[in-house]
Amino acid sequence: MARRPIIAGNWKMHNNKAQAKELIDGIMYGVSQLDASKMPEVVVAPTYTALWQVYDLIKNEPKIALSAQNVNPNPSGAYTGEVSLDMLADFNVKFVIIGHSERRQMFGETDEFINQKAVAILEKGLIPIICCGETLEQREAGVTDAHLEEQITKALKGISADDVKKSVIAYEPIWAIGTGKSCDAVEANRTIGEIRKVVAKLYSADVADAIRILYGGSVKPSTIVEQMAQPEIDGGLIGGASLQADSFVDLIKGAM
Asked: Domain range holding 29?
């Protein structure tokens, strides 16, 4: 099955109003020069404070989709500082990143809470980008595959096969996020292949063939071509390299 690649930029806690406009203007100019028929799906995930501005700038640009960096699964209520799916829908958000290691480690988010988010996102008609990944200690202990299987199994609990096909998984080895280190492309491909086997075991080979699985972890223009040459890797969830328009556009080109 041909899976359309995704290049998604996670801006994390970067960019004020002026910086967000400068960045998205640069990305829009870059993608305007590219052949839409050959492009991967391009996704940007700004901060909440920039969602309105980025939405307004890209609303007539079909080559770029909007993502949120997180969401609360509850429809409304006394959840100070949180954002709901209804609020995101106001800005035509298509994707929502959940389960990022920074959310797990810094804010104590559990697999069960991430599953609640995934279920709510899909019920709303949006697409979750479900992050998973291992620490350096887990990799060195040889438990990477078992750890990822547990994360994916819990994240997909109660989700139908059809909804899993629509979903996206992002494999991000924690030891490679923001460190400048990148998992070897061949090993990243093997690991993502193991994740796909987990999906096949939980559902079917057809579902596993349909779901897009991205690699994230210090992805750069210098690494993207080799990574995209791997059969299991369907694109990248990009951190630092998404904060400069030129490098992000180079990543898009590398996935074409």
From this structure: 6-254
